[in-house]
UniProtKB/TrEMBL annotation:
Species in which this protein is naturally found: Psychromonas arctica
Protein family according to the UniProt entry: Belongs to the UPF0162 family.
Protein name, per record: Tetratricopeptide repeat protein
Domain Protein SirB1 N-terminal: 62-198
Record-linked Pfam families: TPR_9, Transglut_core2
Amino acid sequence: MELDELGVVEQPVVNTSIIHEAIDYSAFSLLQLASMAEAEITGQSILQFQDSMRLQLIIVKSQVRNKTEQNLDKLQTLLNSVYHDQGFKGDWKAFFKVKNALVSKVLSRRKGVPISLGILLIEMLKETGFSAFGICFPSGFIVKVELENGTVYIDPFNGDIVDIQQLELKVRGQLGNHARLTPEMLQADSTETIIKRYVSVLKAAYIQAENIELALLCSDILLRLDPEDAFEVRDRGFLFQQLDCFQLACNDFTYFIEQCPEDPIVNLLKRQIKQMNDEHNAQTIH
């Protein structure tokens, strides 16, 4: 079944809510969870994706089959196979498009954004014996690999191994010239944190594509994972507002105001609530 440009199947299938607050993250790989989230949002077949990924893993494993040590030589061979021979790369020209975020589309197109490319790369690394982890780095997703003789960091957007100095420059470029790289920034993030980041990227892509309904599905997943996330409740309120679900939007804005009364956006939300209530009252009168 093919996805259209916005990542929607032509004949959507009904998926149960398989991503939820009580999910056992240890029971699934990062890629499995990402594909489960995608399946729930778009109707993409998980089995079809798994078949495609299985073929990809056969290719990668064949390239490193004679290398038994988890060292830099084996890692570079794998990266050359993925990024040079097979042509995986970041897509600068359409960076914020849905097709660059959905892992199934990234696998088939071999183009994407750092987090989706990174999730795929981590799966390939782990399946070939490496200890690989994801980092939600300030400038974009980074892959951390523990080798026999030390730790290396990979930019999944281009497959380059980056050193500490390059990571420092990325931090300063994102957070300002006075920002500095800290040890905490290089700590591997949990599977839960990465999946939340992945779904958030999907949500942002759908918002840019003006597909508010699918953005709302992303928000629903995020709130299932963390029901008390006031900022996500606020964001869902904006989505409800765009869908003219004014009462639901007011409820979400009110919750955020109660939870974060000192936030700078509170006054704006209060005006939004008043405006939506006024419009609702005017419609009721007429």
